Amino acid sequence: MAVILDGKSLSKKIREEIKNEVESFRKKGFRNPSLAVILVGNDPASEIYVNNKRKACEKVGIRSLFYHLPEDTSEEKLLGLIYELNQDEEVDGILVQLPLPKHIDQTKVILSISPEKDVDGFHPENMGKLAAQIEDGFIPCTPLGIDILLRHYGIEVKGKDVTVVGAGFIVGRPLSLLLLWRNATVSVCHIHTKDITKFTKEADILISATGVPHLIKADMVKEGAVVVDVGISRLNGKIVGDVDFENVKEKASAITPVPGGVGPMTVTALLLNTLKAYKKKFSHLISTTNP
Ligand code: NAD
């Protein structure tokens, strides 16, 4: 039976640490960190994600400033708001919930966020820092959350054969770069890969981020592999991942559940990135008060 990689309880522990750190800054007279969250439209899944992120912020003492804009908001108006938030000294992080309505150019929006406040890590400057292995950028939240989860469980990726299924810009692609940074041998599969099983069967660590429910079956997994499931889909009214959990858990040495695995770690990574943005802003003062 596989070890369950419990992202929920690890998140609880890390969030407690973040809360303590925020409190210690408050005691030294600093303001609370803050995250501006922008949601355009009323997509129900996006509303749930945004609410979860805002609640998690408030619990650790990160102020969340919520901008809920109507579906028909113009691109110009959204860019104007981001411009203002970029200038606002009281705002440490800016998160625009994706996907955006079709009439808004997502790339333009990502490019408009100041890289210093881009806690989602999607700006090309931060993606570039990830590729170039420069520590002071922001790593996208899901890859960062997975990295922290694997480290916590003592799962070494260095020298391992890691297969990532899914090459999306939010998860698979930045995750592959992070795994390379951690010295794994990385194979990346996507919809055009001729035979994903060829790659999944070889993997010491298999990570799936496609959004295709139960794509990964037990016969596609090597005995004793570590399996990380990023996917979130609905199947017969239930939230399921990319992995056929019940069968794969019999073969894997460790596995993340859905829900309760990667999801909470993603939100925790967002809190860590926001704290990082805040600390960077005050670093010159922090170093003098806390030598
Ligand atoms: P995306 O649509 O940007 O990318 C999906 C990728 O999967 C693409 O590269 C595509 O080529 C590949 N793919 C699709 N079908 C495939 C198949 N049959 N075989 C091989 N590859 C296939 O999606 P995304 O934004 O990267 O998200 C992927 C999944 O992860 C979604 O279910 C999303 O909800 C979930 N997600 C979860 C979290 C979390 O915190 N747990 C965070 C972000 C995204």
Note the main attributes of this structure.
Rossmann fold, 291 residues, single chain, globular, 3-stranded parallel sheet
Cα(first) to Cα(last) distance is: 47 Å
Helix content: 40-55%
Which architecture of the largest domain per CATH? 3-Layer(aba) Sandwich
Shape: globular
User: What compounds are bound to the protein?
Assistant: nicotinamide-adenine-dinucleotide
Rounded mean pLDDT score: 96
Task: Report the CATH C-level class of the largest domain.
Answer: Alpha Beta
Please list the strands of the largest sheet in the order they lie side by side: 1-11-8-7-5-6
Number of helices: 10
Question: Could you explain how this protein is built, in words?
Answer:
The protein has helices at 7-27, 44-60, 75-87, 106-112, 124-132, 141-152, 172-181, 196-200, 245-248, 262-289, and strands at 3-4, 34-40, 63-69, 93-96, 161-165, 185-189, 205-208, 226-229, 233-235, 238-240, 254-255. The protein has 291 residues and is an alpha/beta fold. It has a 6-stranded parallel sheet. A 3-stranded parallel sheet has the order 3-2-4, sandwiched between helices. The chain has a two-stranded antiparallel ribbon with strand order 9-10. Helix 7 links the parallel strand 5 and strand 6 (185-189). The protein starts with a strand and ends with a helix. The mean pLDDT is 96. It binds nicotinamide-adenine-dinucleotide. Nicotinamide-adenine-dinucleotide is lined by residues 142, 165-172, 189-191, 193, 196, 209-212, 215, 230-233, 262-263, 266.
